[in-house]
Amino acid sequence: xxxxxxxxxxxxxxxxxxxxxxxxxxxxxxxxxxxxxxxxxxxxxxxxxxxxxxxxxxxxxxxxxxxxxxxxxxxxxxxxxxxxxxxxxxxxxxxxxxxxxxxxxxxxxxxxxxxxxxxxxxxxxxxxxxxxxxxxxxxxxxxxxxxxxxxxxxxxxxxxxxxxxxxxxxxxxxxxxxxxxxxxxxxxxxxxxxxxxxxxxxxxxxxxxxxxxxxxxxxxxxxxxxxxxxxxxxxxxxxxxxxxxxxxxxxxxxxxxxxxxxxxxxxxxxxxxxxxxxxxxxxxxxxxxxxxxxxxxxxxxxxxxxxxxxxxxxxxxxxxxxxxxxxxxxxxxxxxxxxxxxxxxxxxxxxxxxxxxxxxxxxxxxxxxxxxxxxxxxxxxxxxxxxx
Length: 388
Known about the structure:
By secondary structure, the chain is α/β, with parallel strands linked by helices. The chain has two domains: 6-130, P-loop containing nucleotide triphosphate hydrolases (Rossmann fold); 141-386, no CATH class. It contains 17 helices and 13 strands. The chain has helices at 6-16, 30-36, 51-56, 60-65, 83-96, 111-121, 144-150, 154-157, 162-183, 190-202, 210-217, 221-233, 262-268, 274-278, 283-298, 342-351, 377-386, and strands spanning 19-23, 43-47, 71-75, 104-108, 126-130, 237-240, 256-259, 304-309, 315-322, 326-332, 355-360, 366-367, 372-376. The strands form three sheets. The chain has a six-stranded mixed beta sheet. A five-stranded parallel beta sheet has the order 2-3-4-1-5, with helices on both faces. A two-stranded antiparallel ribbon has the order 6-7. α10 crosses α13 (262-268).
């Protein structure tokens, strides 16, 4: 069992909010985490994909009112959208009776719709957290390569061998395409959406070009945007915005897209082991996406992430705007001899960050001059945690 760093934060939110929404893609460990939170705490768990548990909410108000005083954990809560109005009334009654916090833990795997419903019905009563796949600070340092190749979904990462890991990821992808997405409403052919997902993996870290993607799929740009919104909503794809600042320069304004889990990138591209990944042109961008995701999973709350690029070629792979108006600039290089490019130096002069790093695959930390530091991913992740 791997301890998840977010567990303490979930407990903290439950001490201060009546309801906490824990978002995350399927199979990321939300249920396991929720069940482990109830040590010493009276709780009841309902899986709303289980017909027996679903039936218990036929009279949702009556059933949940009977659980007052307990922590009620509702898994896959997006399957019962009308539930939020009931929860609001129950929460207000409990607050009036002296139970201001720790009433409901809501688990969900589709973010936008769930967030909209919870914000409309539970405004001021709910805190939202996201559980991501495993990150570099949750595993042993010696297993860093395994985390990159297999990705951070626990069953993929912990599989007995590479073959079992690949089989798990293939079935994960198939289940999303054939069951989970149709349940959310969109009627998109599974084969079309798999092609789109695979195209995003091939173009990992590239600027979004809806016209080009549309031509490849024989659909228009608006349809591509709809597909992308869906994948972002399911927490499977990240849309990284550009860092826009008024410098009198022509800045790139299109976002970059990343398939968020490196293991899914490799499965979509049929790269089954480390040798296959290293021999493929995607290796560099796969590593870049892997580093970005790991850093974003540990960055302080209220940090804004983006990238910087000018039309002339000055570029920073990741710009983090931390609370307190602190800006960190991060360049990502796969290899043991990282070199800060001329474009990176120009970009640093443009935005003037407080700290600048070149992340590489080694574990030594050293200065590269001009206030730039070479650093390993794990060390920079720990630095971000300390900057909370």
